[in-house]
Amino acid sequence: MARPQQIQQEAASTAGNKNKKTSNKGGTSSATKAVTVGIKGKPDRVPSCSTCGVIITSDKRALQCDGCNREDSWKCAECLNISTELYDQLLNGLDLKWLCTTCEGKIFASEDQETIMYKLDRIISMIDALHARTSSIEDRIEEKADKLLIDSLCSKNNDIEQHLVETLTKSEQKVMQKISGVEQVLKNKAETNLLQRVEDRIKQLKDKLNAAEEVKKLAATVEKQRTDYHELRDCVQDAVRDKLQEDKEEADDLQRRSMNIIIHGLKETPEEDREARRIGETDQVQGMLHVMKCDDVSVQNMVRLGSYETSLEKLTPRPLKVVMASERQRKKVLSQAKNLKEYRNFEKVYIQQDFTKKQREKREELVQQLIQRKALG
Fold this sequence. Notes:
It is built from 10 helices and 6 strands. By secondary structure, the chain is α+β, with helices and mostly antiparallel strands.
């Protein structure tokens, strides 16, 4: 699988041999095709994401199709919707490949259902192994970090306590010595300046005692920081656990919807009997598949989304969810849906894939952005 780091290496190698002509009859790698150098050593072609158009640089997380290795088959990690952890695992040699839409369609068209399910099981096993490996790494990091932090805090706390005891003992000894000396001097010499000096010395001793109090406060602060660290660690663990669960639920939802399509605008049969409505809608769907040249497609199940309304004045039919026999058949129907515009009975009908809740929210956000941009000109 090609990575953006290969781009800089190829550019440097090509620039160093700009006066030599080379050939590669066996074919070129995906990194070699990503950047070519002209006569003056400057890149003639720079790869970019085929979805958002962002330039693929050495520090940009992106992948190139392992099937065709074409120059326009790069996609950035944001458009692929893959996490940083999965991308790092790919860089470290995880046995997983990425294919563009074209290559993926070719592979699905050439493989039977049993092979597809085998590969899906293999991908799920890889994801489980990755999750187990990530959990193991997190446990080791947490165990090591806790041990080092506790040892360090205990050592500092012991040092502070020992220093505090020594300081207090020395201070007490010095106080007693100074007081004895002052008393002796006052007995021998009744001078005002000596009294001032005694007061200054006492003040210095008080300052030292205040410093000892500050040390105690510092020790309390260190203990509080250690407690805050454990609370923060627990929060991070909960966040990571929630994110992993969310990603797993999204993957399961995508798998459940992988053979579904949603038909909008298909007229509802005005029958009170549910079975009569089902037969009428089945005939409509079969007729629609016929004009789309999809007679070989098998429908497993159909259901209207939303509650049934008996009023004939209803303007908008309910969406119809149709379950195909396989993902290949679903892709065929979606690819032939554009032909419906040529037939008067189906000119207001459009078909789309069964999106998850997260996918629908993302599409709605993109639609709102597009509307705002159009409004701004």
